[in-house]
Design a protein that fits this description.
Helix content is 28%, strand content 35%. The protein is of the alpha/beta class. Strands 3-2-1-4-5-12-11 form a 7-stranded mixed beta sheet, with helices on both faces. The longest helix has 15 residues, at 17-31.
């Protein structure tokens, strides 16, 4: 499959400080970790969230399969308690085990085989100490399917100027996949096309996958505002934990 590249990284860099801070505040409040606790950012991308969590006092390990993302993330580590690993999240287990795993911005679900997505959850579980917590952010596909948009056009202010992004989506119900074709249109006229499928899981299916990995569900939220999950919530954000006592 195609993994996100520098065109998508432009969008990550365009996220405002206020948006990022809202995410960080939500993550820290829900995970409730003591200073110095360890956290694995599974699918860390260019490391913007990892960086801020390390700046908040956590010992952060960021893992991503994209070597360009990891290279950019490492360039911004400064003296923070932070390390980045270029690895496949289906295989990577953090050693020694730590207190929390974060899977944010739909880092989960980009493999087209259920066994591969299940493997990511298994490695998250294996990376945790007993009692450790997982916070996973994923689209609410009830809302996505009910309000399905086959074409979405958005503009992003980036270091390259105003980038127009067109996303053409189609659903393959037999395979349980959302196929997304992204077109990036740059100020100088350059165009780039990328295909990024996403596995479609409804909340009850995700809950079963988490339980299959060994997790115990604690709570589910509908957005970073922290409200309880509803059928029309934009996101499905689950807090789960590994059994046992730290």
């Amino acid at each position: 499959m195609d993994f996100y590249d520098q065109h998508f990284a432009l969008l990550a860099r365009s996220q405002s400080t206020e948006q990022l801070q809202q995410i960080i505040d939500f993550v820290l409040a829900r995970l409730a970790l003591a200073p110095g606790s360890g956290l694995l950012d599974q699918g860390c991308g260019i490391g913007r969230i990892s960086h801020l969590l390390a700046n908040a006092g956590l010992q952060v390990t960021g893992v991503d399969i994209n070597s360009e993302y990891i290279r950019e993330a490492r360039a911004n580590t400064a003296d923070l308690p932070l390390r980045y690993v270029c690895a496949d999240a289906r295989d990577f287990v953090c050693e020694p085990a730590l207190e929390a795993v974060l899977s944010w911005h739909t880092s989960f679900g980009h493999f087209t085989r259920a066994a591969d997505n299940q493997a990511m959850l298994a490695r998250a579980y294996d990376s945790l100490l007993p009692g450790g917590r997982l916070l996973l952010d994923y689209p609410n596909f009830y809302q996505t399917l009910i309000n399905f948009q086959s074409v979405l056009v958005q503009s992003y202010t980036t270091e390259a100027g105003l980038v127009r992004v067109m996303r053409h989506s189609r659903i393959d119900p037999g395979a349980g996949l959302l196929h997304q074709d992204w077109e990036f249109i740059y100020p100088d006229g350059e165009r780039a096309l990328r295909h990024a499928p996403l596995s479609i899981y409804l909340p009850h299916q995700l809950e079963q996958m988490l339980q299959n990995a060994g997790f115990i569900l604690t709570n589910v939220y509908g957005s970073v505002a922290g409200e309880p999950f509803e059928l029309d919530s934009p996101r499905w954000i689950v807090l789960a934990h590994k059994g046992g006592t730290p």
